[in-house]
Amino acid sequence: MTAGAPARTGGPADLAGLRRLAVATLDANWEHDHTVPSRTLYPHQWSWDSAFIAIGLAQVRPERAWRELASLFRAQWADGRVPHIVFNPALRVGAYFPGPELWRSATAEGAPAVDTSGLVQPPVHALAAWLAYRRAPYPAGLAALRRLYPALVAQQRYLAARRDLTGYGLACIVHPWESGLDNSPAWDEPMAAVPAEATVMRAYRRHDTAHADAAHRPTDLDYARYLAIVAAYRDNGYSDRGLANGHPFLVECPLFNAAVGAAEHALAEIAALVGADPGPHRARATRITEALVRRLFDPATGTFAPRDLRTERLVPARTVLGLAPLILPDLPTRQADALVVEARSARFGVARRMDRPLPSYDRTAPDFEPLRYWRGPSWLNVGWLVRRGLLAHGHPELAAGLRRSMIGLVAGAGCHEYFHPDSGAGLGSPAFSWTAALLLDLLAEDAGTAPG
Fold first, then answer.
1. Is position 68 annotated as part of the catalytic site?
2. Closest CA to 230 of 202, 198, 197, 194
């Protein structure tokens, strides 16, 4: 595959082969009531992975899509948070790092009976539930959606009541892992203030570098700081009270809050379907979009940026996080147009068609790393989100180019966790579930399924 030109699919036979690959990947990763992200790197259940996976499963195994979401929400905490990891008790201690022995969720007030982490991830679950129903609108799916609706509302209530630390209407993340983009350059400045030494990691055995090249993963210093933040939150009982008085990492993230707003839009649709009032969801969605524009849009750069609450400064790194608010259908035209310009710039796309893989970080930045996790590589989940935003704001030709690039990545390298944004080489874990699931969603359009 030549640089900047991922493999092209030919005709229906090629697409059918990709579809079989995606289904086989999801079937191989199915674990009795949920799907593991991969059999090597990630042997437990991850929160936003399950949401993306449910969207793809709805195309081929709709009953599993609802079991996927139901199993995740069975681990919801009493305060409404949905943990970012639900641990499989059948696995041996040490099967994943950091495991339940480090999180110690059982000691926290309101934690579920099963071991989990105490963090959350972007709340894309209401959107996933709505799309899963749209993909397969059958009676059992409607019943499952009705059962899930109160838990989805509780998830949103937790973020609004416990994580709005400033009162401006945005949720704060308390760890880079909550953003979903673990080692993004967006976190370099906030993380630099977290005291930790790389030597801390000598006491632990990292699971990820046993299965993937260490040059493609976060560094030991990153992990030492991650653990310091986890310890601070855990030792306070995972309580959100008093976070502003000393927690080492507090950031308003544009992707996370765009997901919160998109969830309210999805919940309005679900509410109307199940007989609840959609009005409050629509009102909250409007307020979130207004807060995002007011707090996180930088008119000087024409993009959104995280705000470090420790310094009250917008983070200058130009990352794919800044494009995520495109998924909000009520994003004002000025901001939507500016994000399209950013997406088509040399930093992220190609001016005319956007059919080059979308990187996770500014290609023109001096510290751009095309092999290292969220510091450059292309990921299908954020590409899928940005594509939805392009469609929502009237750019079907750019969305089509981005779709071609994503399908081309899998056609050239398989269902990898992430990809080199220029060569298209597969990186991270092979046989990765959300890559397979979102590929199925992209391919469904060739089978006549509307994007929804």
1. no
2. 194
